[in-house]
Amino acid sequence: MNVLALFFVLTLLAVAVRGDDDFDYKPIPDLQDPHVQEIAKFAVTELGKATGERLKYIKTVKGDYLIDDGTNYRLVITILNDQRMADYLAIVLEKPAGHYTLMLGD
User: Fold this and answer.
1) For the whole model, what pTM was predicted?
2) Is 48 in a helix, a strand, or coil?
3) What InterPro entries does the record point to (predicted)?
4) Phi, psi of 104, deg, nearest 5
5) What is the Cα–Cα distance from 44 to 88, expressed in whole angstroms?
6) If you compute the radius of gyration of the chain from its CA atoms, what whole number of angstroms results?
7) Cα angle vertex 11, ends 98, 95, to 5°?
8) Which single residue of 19, 40, 66, 97 has CA 20 to 30 Å from 29?
9) pLDDT tens digit string along 12-29?
10) Residues 10, 20: Cα–Cα separation, whole Å
């Protein structure tokens, strides 16, 4: 994994994981792409830091993206926390310089 300068804002959202057709998001063709995996793992790591919980990334269930002022990734991520798995919606903005802004909720 490349060393990245990370800038993030973490906001927990009380939203249900659902298929909103807001804006013009397009499906990510390959959820196993190393860059997509890096972004998903970044989201889990930052949530763990913010909550003080020990979280483990399991898989990326669904994902789409929107190119605007950078690239917005909307990912549904399965996370393991104390023997309980749950899906979280993570919205990560990647700026052209490799900076990320994160919003994560369950």
Assistant:
1) 0.71
2) helix
3) Cystatin_dom (IPR000010), Cystatin_sf (IPR046350)
4) -135, 135
5) 9
6) 13
7) 15
8) 97
9) 232 333 344 556 899 999
10) 21
